Amino acid sequence: xxxxxxxxxxxxxxxxxxxxxxxxxxxxxxxxxxxxxxxxxxxxxxxxxxxxxxxxxxxxxxxxxxxxxxxxxxxxxxxxxxxxxxxxxxxxxxxxxxxxxxxxxxxxxxxxxxxxxxxxxxxxxxxxxxxxxxxxxxxxxxxxxxxxxxxxxxxxxxxxxxxxxxxxxxxxxxxxxxxxxxxxxxxxxxxxxxxxxxxxxxxxxxxxxxxxxxxxxxxxxxxxxxxxxxxxxxxxxxxxxxxxxxxxxxxxxxxxxxxxxxxxxxxxxxxxxxxxxxxxxxxxxxxxxxxxxxxxxxxxxxxxxxxxxxxxxxxxxxxxxxxxxxxxxxxxxxxxxxxxxxxxxxxxxxxxxxxxxxxxxxxxxxxxxxxxxxxxxxxxxxxxxxxxxxxxxx
Length: 394
Prior knowledge:
By secondary structure, this protein is α+β, with helices and mostly antiparallel strands. Strand 6 and strand 7 form a beta hairpin. The strands form five sheets. Strands 10-11-12-13 form a four-stranded antiparallel beta sheet. Strands 1-3-2 form a three-stranded antiparallel beta sheet, with helices on both faces. The chain has 14 helices and 13 strands. Among the domains are: 93-207, no CATH class; 290-393, no CATH class.
């Protein structure tokens, strides 16, 4: 007799999202590390995203608390990993992320750099290795330095290569940033404090401690288990997209988690056998769960299939051509609009739906005030120029 798969509705998934991703006031974390643990990895392509993702989910959050975790305690580790994207992950998970995804990304980055150096400058692998040894020595002496200071100490890094040759956006730049990217991807160096405010993208670099070695197959199972815990139920396509794995690695990792199938209505989903979503529904919060999430927030970018929390008609307003999402406004596990910050510091919001009542609007105003206090004198300028971002910035 065929096994009947439990059915999980979109409403159940949104209720799960609100609590697991700490978007309800009653579910908020009390530490930066709790936020990172709940979401597995925080997007860090835009430096401000890490801080704002924490601010939305933590009681009493301050920029100083996030800086403490990143640069003093080093309880969070910045890595180039899933989908060749920069993330911040809990230190305890760094070796798993390195073995399951970052190692492959780093190998591709090194191969691409070696080809460019050979094709454009005639340098071989031995030349690059010598430059990297000099870079490590320079950083050991300097302690912490930006790319310009490192290039002053290692003049070979000032050589230039052409990016996107023959394209309208062709540029020439020093090889320093490419070399630093490869070495960071390999976990040999790491980004330290930025120059300027916590929202600045001009980082200093320092030496990194090596990660413990973990077998890749085992690491993929552990990472898939973490993802299912935080984001389940998910589809096979969700797992493959979020991790950046090929289909074989995705299937093997999923099998290793012991996940069970559920019916999502439009697709087959997977959850861990002890997932609370399979049990009786939790009592709903009394008030609306409203959040202002930043560009590339891990919740907004956590699934390939987003129709259960995002009206497809709103995609053109919120996403750029590369599939990256701008700052979003959430209510009860659903995207209902977006937000931006004016030069005078005011938080402005734009609703994409008319289905909001007074309680929701009051909660939106309260969250905007909370975010304003967190930002202080810092101004956020998202690099993503979606139609909604342009409208709000105007």
